[in-house]
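Sequence dictates fold. Next comes a concrete instance:
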Amino acid sequence: MSYGIAFLPIFIWKKGKRESLLYDHLLSANEASMELKQARLEYMKEVSYCKNLAQDHRSAANEKFFDILLS
């Protein structure tokens, strides 16, 4: 009886469809990776826009706001 209790989970695991489960997880990981890349590109574009804005339009009236923006 103990042999069946100990090895039954292993037998069930070996007979399972691990490949399809692994493939589903890989697809979701790929989607998350693509979303991360898109978010990084958007973030870098916004940072570049803010830096260019600060360099091109810095004046005495908006100096305080640009310091906050750049920090």
User: Anything to note?
Assistant: The helical segments are 2-15, 18-56, 63-70. The longest helix spans residues 18-56.
